[in-house]
Amino acid sequence: MADDMKYTVFYTDENGQLVPNGEKLLSITEIAKYRNIPTERLRYYDKIGLLRPDYVDKLTGRRFYSAQQCEKLGTIKELRRLNLSLKEIEDYFSDRNLEKSERVLRQRYELLQQEIADKLEISRVLKEKLKFIRELNNTDFKLDDPVIRELPERYALKGESNKFRTNLTGIEFMKLEEAIGGTSPVLATDKVAMTIKNSVDPDDMDSEVCPMVFCSADQADKESFTTVAGGKYVCAFHRNCYSYFGELIMKMRCLAQEHGYTLGNVGVMIYRIDITLTDNSDETIAELQFPLIKESREK
After folding, report:
1. CATH 3.30.1360.120 holds for 10-96
2. Which one of 63, 82, 135, 272 has the fewest beta carbons within 10 angstroms of its own beta carbon?
3. H helical segments located in 49-97
């Protein structure tokens, strides 16, 4: 035999541990314990070739791993925490160098920053919704009590007009929510709304309305999005989104006139508390918002 042929001799030490050429190997149970990973997962990694054991006993089938493999397993575990797929991890270990590692880590860092921003937005929305629900139990919270507010310019995606209180309107809302996407749970946002007529006629409750979903400025980059003008609005909360609110509109008209304005012909009704949060229609809350138009004074 050639003198440079490398031999690996396995023997057991005083503790009964398998030792090749003086290097201690770890059993599958030991490495799983050190890395807090189920042994079934290690067997799967072996099956797909991601982490093969350093030595397999041909008689018993027992798997043994080196310290270097234990380090690789730790890296695999960290990469999984970064949401890399097993295929991506396999590619990561293929022809690895510093430049390649830096590129992979930077990509994951950028994705993580976006995920953090998304989670913070969800947290903000949930906080606002919980605050609003708490305010409902506050004695200072007033329903059917119009106030004048200054609202900023907003953006929305409008759907097809349908009769109010029909399944078609609900379907349009689902289409709009899907089109906008986003990370905030719809049940916690105040972005679902519809157009509403400045009318006290009960029959107009079943007239055509236009479902709409508010969105952020960076989402409003398509021709299908519309701008909701900012400015002075008369706003009021109304219990039961599906009940008659003609009397409330009369109050809103009176408040507008007291300040030298008239109500716009079309406003929006925003669902603050709706069927995503309660099955009791008497617990639902809508906010009506009508733009104010300055009355012209004839000389």
Report:
1. no
2. 135
3. 67-81, 86-93
